[in-house]
């Protein structure tokens, strides 16, 4: 039996759509309990960014190296907070 066809603007072939549906167990995707998620607090960021390329760290690490890692972690956590906020607002989580 043929399932409904995917929207053409997604760019998936019928075969890819069928594979994706089979991988998730049919047409329904289990939704997580939204009460398990709370809205993040603090600064959020929706700015563009390049993927983080971790620098080589000396032994022992210098203060500048530790600060660079801390800055990268802060930037990524702000982007993650923005993503979680958007997912909550969209009702996904």
Explain what the structure shows.
There is one protein chain. The protein has helices at 14-23, 63-89. By secondary structure, the chain is an all-alpha fold. The longest helix has 27 residues, at 63-89. It starts with 13 loop residues before the first helix and ends with a helix.
Quick overview:
The protein has 93 residues and is mostly helical. It has helices at residues 14-23, 63-89.
Describe this protein with a few key phrases:
mainly alpha; 40% helix; 93 residues; 2 helices; single chain
Poorly predicted regions are: 5-9
Task: Name the beta content range.
Answer: under 5%
Category by helix and strand content: mainly alpha
The total of beta strands comes to: 0
Q: Sheet bearing the most strands, described?
A: none
Distance between the termini: 32 Å
Query: What oligomeric state do the depicted chains represent?
Result: single chain
Give the topology, please.
Elements: H1 14-23, H2 63-89
């Amino acid at each position: 039996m043929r399932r409904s066809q995917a929207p053409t603007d997604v760019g998936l072939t019928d075969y890819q759509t069928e594979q994706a549906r089979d991988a998730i167990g049919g047409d329904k995707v289990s939704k997580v309990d939204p009460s398990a998620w709370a809205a993040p607090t603090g600064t959020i960021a929706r700015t563009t960014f390049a993927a983080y390329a971790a620098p080589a760290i000396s032994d022992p690490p210098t203060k500048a190296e530790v600060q660079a890692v801390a800055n990268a972690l802060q930037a990524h956590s702000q982007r993650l907070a923005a993503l979680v906020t958007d997912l909550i607002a969209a009702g996904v989580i």
